[in-house]
Amino acid sequence: MLRFVGKHKTFSLALLIFVVLLWLITAQVKSGRFLFLEKPVLAVSGFFERTIGGAFNAVGSVWTRYVFLIGTQRENIRLTETLNNLRVENQLTNELLAENERLRAVLNFKKLYPPSAVVVQIIGKTVSPASSTVTISKGSENGIEKGLAVITAAGVVGKVQTILPGTSKVILLTDPESTLAVRVQRNREDGLLEGKLSHCALKYVSYYADVQEGDLLVTSGLDGIYPKGLPVALVVKVSKHEASPFQSVVAEPIVRFSRLEEALVLKK
Amino acid sequence: MKPRVYLIVLLLVIPFQARLLSPLSVAGITPDLCLIVVYVIGLLTSPREAAFAGIVVGLLQDINAASYLGLMGFTQGLAGLFAGFLGKRVLNVSSLSNIAFLAAFSLMESVFLAVFIEILYGSVPFFSMVFGNMLPRAFYTGLFGVVLLQLITKKGVITMLTRRTLQREA
């Protein structure tokens, strides 16, 4: 044995390192991920991501703002039209909100406080096929805290995982560590949405529950992280196995993470 | 490879993967730059050097992505080791068959990770992942890697990257 090790030193050392890595993975499976090196590495990579991203954005903005202006006027007209429509919708919503508040007061319901939001830019995307995370441009200096919900106008993105003064790491819905309490919008059936890298899986949905392809999943608010009713994912596949008391439901996030540029972090 | 090249690669590979490859994303799929870098190191150096480089790059990926520490270190280390053997015995940098090998490495890595997640958490939609994510990603990584390799060979960057001892061996 020793002779073999002496003869194949490099091979033995590599083998030893691979065994150590496997041990490290199994240890984390039992006791949770080791995150002690995360902040220093995020600080270094965050600095480079900001620098590279800044240079990249500067070149890009010269092109898009000063050179490539085809369609700008047409887009301007379309946006003005949308803005006017949204103003009308906003007035109607304000009326409904006021009415809702009055009725809540009459029924002695708990008062709803809409959360305030911080606009953030996505400065880095997933670097490992084993997880789904993004780096955002704001951190503890801007009041970002661990566990805050991150959303866009389209729906839920994920939640804040690690915070540094100027940047934070956000864990996306598709990350295997991500879980989110959701319900089917159509019939209020509850479930737990788990990340599976490219898709999500809706867990603990009873065999007899009515879940169909195309159903919209929204936040149920039961986890205390996300406000109730935000769009999360669309059901793309439902299958039932007689041996299991639960259905197997595959869902696709509403937000296209590959095109994500800005997001909102909801403060509590 | 030269130590300062390693330092630059280790400092920049993660930010480049995180920031600069996003515009190259097709249908949400981006090439795996970290795997390409490890593969190139394997072709240019030795199995030992590439395995260690792969482990370090993989560990950086794990830490940066808040993933299980050692998971990508393990897969990238193996990729480096096999790329090193390929570079020593079978392939050269400018060969077009690198597309197939890079794609195979990427596919094997994805399958390993999917199996790991299936064992740990269950309910992985395996077949839709294979056709919707793993195969396109593997092919894109292979193609992107070969384009990078062609650029490296054409501009004579290899001489700049490799140490004199390795150049003499070659």
Please describe the topology of this protein:
The complex is a heterodimer of chains A (268) and B (170).
Chain A: H1 2-7, H2 9-31, H3 38-67, H4 72-107, E1 117-124, E2 133-136, E3 149-151, E4 156-163, E5 168-172, E6 179-184, E7 190-196, E8 199-203, E9 216-219, E10 231-239, E11 248-253, E12 262-266
Antiparallel strand pairs in A: 1-2, 1-12, 2-5, 3-4, 3-12, 4-5, 6-7, 6-9, 7-8, 8-11, 9-10, 10-11
Chain B: H1 3-20, H2 33-44, H3 47-64, H4 71-89, H5 98-121, H6 126-154, H7 157-161, H8 164-169
Task: Describe this protein's structure.
The complex is a heterodimer of chains A (268) and B (170). Chain A has 268 residues and is an alpha+beta fold. Helix content of chain A is 35%, strand content 26%. In chain A, the strands form two sheets. A six-stranded antiparallel β-barrel of chain A has the order 1-2-5-4-3-12. In chain A, strand 6 and strand 7 form a beta hairpin. Chain B has 170 residues and is an all-alpha fold. Chain B has a single domain (3-22, 31-165), classed as Arp2/3 complex 21 kDa subunit ARPC3 (Orthogonal Bundle), CATH 1.10.1760. The longest helix of chain B is centred in the last third of the chain and has 29 residues, at 126-154. Chain B is globular. The model of chain B has no long low-confidence stretch (mean pLDDT 82). Classes of the chains: A alpha+beta (268), B mainly alpha (170).
